[in-house]
Design a protein that fits this description.
single chain; oxidoreductase; two-stranded antiparallel sheet; AcylCoA_DH/ox_N_sf; Butyryl-Coa Dehydrogenase, subunit A, domain 1; 14 helices; acyl-CoA dehydrogenase activity; 3 domains; Butyryl-CoA Dehydrogenase, subunit A, domain 3; alpha+beta; Acyl-CoA/acyl-ACP dehydrogenase; AcylCoA_DH/ox_N; five-stranded mixed β-barrel
Length: 390
């Protein structure tokens, strides 16, 4: 495997970094997350029309660029560096690949060009950790399993109807299209299916929730006999397997995003300790501070190596995500500590990075379950030994 980035890949990284450096500073991020959409719509228009980020990994036949997970991971490393609030993750990383892999020819032709152009945003309405197969075997039981809870699907007079609710749906309050995972068939033919629900569907109620990480807006989705369209030409698709495949790629992209955030938090901390003086000298000259920063540097670089490997081999995505989230949490925590009194104020940007680490751990983890599932898949422990280790 050649891990060297091509000139085109480096150009993607450079272009995204330069644009976000101009348009997405800490003040702009704080302003954007408090809008109704939860992100800067003008900046999103620029990212879609000029850079084509939503269609970066989509086939050219649907208006995409035709790149792969590596390019998308590089772009998201830069969006993570600035904590860009945008529908990119929900639309391009979660929803679009599911439409491409499970959708019928007419669904792909009708939806994917709109996604690639940025005209349509989409999201996945499901508990992300279990549904994407990141924290355990994906058997679809998280969708309801024929019991109360989750979302239930019924076929009434040839039309699918959904009933239930989903918490913590990324960009669920603003997405134009929802991919809702629902349980169908009861006990007789129990299965998990994916459905397309438009934002104006009768019976759909969307409520924006208060999130720990404001840069990832979340909503509660309530479906009260909402009309839906089955994703795919038939209802015999292996949806859990498709979700797990998308989850592996999403984990690699999320790992790269977390690495970008950790790298930026570390860089800002290094800048600060060079300027902050105590006892007549910069605090960065103290040996104890140097040791702490050196440990953080090693942690970030190790997480970057894991994230880049996962971008070429998504099977390693879960483990790379665990390492990247841990690196981001430790780096953001130390950034708050090393900034001293100013770092403990809510207004300081170090808190944005700490909240991103904690928020992603809640959405996609926790870290110890990501690692435990990776160990199970690799067969590192017997069942008893693994349970004791966890």
């Amino acid at each position: 495997m050649d891990a060297t980035f091509t000139a085109e890949q480096e150009e993607i990284r450079r272009t995204v970094r330069e644009l976000l450096a101009k348009r997405c500073g800490p003040d702009e991020v704080k302003t954007a997350v408090r809008t109704d959409a939860g992100y800067d719509t003008d900046l999103w228009h620029t990212l879609t029309q000029q850079l084509g980020l939503p269609g970066l990994a989509l086939p050219a036949e649907y208006g995409g660029v035709g790149c792969g997970p590596a390019e998308l991971a590089l772009a998201c490393e830069e969006t993570g560096r600035t904590l860009l609030p945008s529908p990119l993750l929900a639309t391009a990383v979660l929803a679009a690949p599911l439409i491409a892999s499970l959708g019928s020819q007419s669904q792909c032709a009708g939806l994917l060009p709109q996604v690639a152009s940025g005209a349509l945003t989409a999201t996945l309405a499901a508990p992300l950790g279990p549904a994407l197969g990141l924290t355990g075997p994906n058997e679809g039981d998280w969708a309801g399993g024929g019991r109360a809870g989750g979302v239930q699907a019924r076929l009434i007079e040839g039309e699918w109807r959904l009933y239930g609710q989903v918490e913590q749906v990324l960009d669920g309050h603003s997405a134009g299209l929802l991919l809702v995972a629902a349980h169908a068939g009861g006990f007789a033919r129990s299965r998990t299916l994916l459905f397309l629900v438009r934002d104006d569907a009768p019976g759909l109620v969307r409520t924006r929730q208060t999130a720990l990480d404001e840069t990832r807006p979340q909503a509660r989705i309530e479906l009260r006999d909402a009309g839906a369209e089955l994703l795919g030409a038939s209802d015999d698709a292996d949806v859990p397997a498709a979700l797990s495949a998308v989850g592996a790629t999403a984990a690699a992209v999320l790992a790269a995003e977390a690495v970008g955030a950790a790298d930026r938090a570390l860089a800002r901390t290094v800048e600060y300790v060079k300027e902050r003086e105590q006892f007549g000298r910069a605090i960065g000259s103290f040996q104890a501070v140097k040791h702490r920063l050196a440990d953080l540097y090693v942690s970030v670089q190790a997480a970057r190596s894991a994230a880049y490997f996962a971008a070429w081999d998504p099977a390693a995505g879960g483990l790379a995500l665990a390492q990247a989230l841990e690196a981001l949490r430790v780096t953001a925590s130390e950034a708050i500590q090393l900034h001293g009194g100013i770092g403990f104020t809510w207004e300081h940007e170090a808190h944005l990075y700490f909240k991103r680490a904690a928020g992603d751990d809640l959405l996609f983890g926790p870290v110890h379950r990501l690692r435990a599932h990776a160990a199970d898949r690799a067969g590192l422990f017997g069942s008893g030994e693994r349970e004791a280790a966890v």
